Amino acid sequence: MRFDTKVLLTAILALSTGLAAPGRADAQTIFGTAPGQVPALETSVGYTFIHANAPPGQCGCFSASGGFGSAVVNMPRGFSVVADLNVVHANSIGGATQSLTVFNYLFGPRYSLRTLSKRFTFYGQALGGRSQALSSYATVGTVTGSAFSIGGGVTTVLKPHLGWTIVEADWVQSRLPNAHNNLQNDVRVSTALTFRLGPR
């Protein structure tokens, strides 16, 4: 039997048309603020808590809390670009009178699964940037270093223009001078209100 190229091309076209039928459209590519749609831009403001390792290379760990803000630019098929800025503060570290304030400036990609649930969106992200620490100890003062985080969370929609990041959990590694190994490994947990802004 002779191989017919036209028949093969017709079959491929019919298959791809069926897969791309309107009823099977990828929900992650429909931009807007209505339920089931993806906002072009999301901005968040919330509370963040960090469980951090203690001064030079120990883990008589301490906790710090503060706030954060983020901006997320959504793209097709679940991908986004994230800017995450957060600040936390702790007093009396390790039973001493030292206080510490830490700023993290992180940027990078996020991937969201929007098709698992009509009410909830699950996401994972990997961010990189800088960290800055301000210590009350004059010998430490202000130090800066690189920072990196891996984590994820779950969000829900409250109203067309308002959402809630129920929880986000991240491992944050920073490289701030500490007179020992210049390495910090922290766990960060956050929650936030999210403002959903328009379609593309």
Task: Count helical runs.
Answer: 1
Helix-and-strand structural type: mainly beta
Low-confidence blocks of residues: 11-25
How far apart lie the N and C ends?
51 Å
Short characterization:
By secondary structure, this protein is mainly beta. It has one helix at 5-19; strands at residues 41-52, 62-74, 79-90, 100-113, 120-135, 142-159, 162-174, 184-197. It has an eight-stranded antiparallel β-barrel with strand order 1-2-3-4-5-6-7-8.
Describe the protein.
With 200 residues, this protein is mainly β. 8% of the residues lie in helices and 56% in strands. It has one helix and eight strands. Strands 1-2-3-4-5-6-7-8 form an eight-stranded antiparallel β-barrel. It is elongated. The termini are far apart. Mean pLDDT is 82; it is low at 11-25.
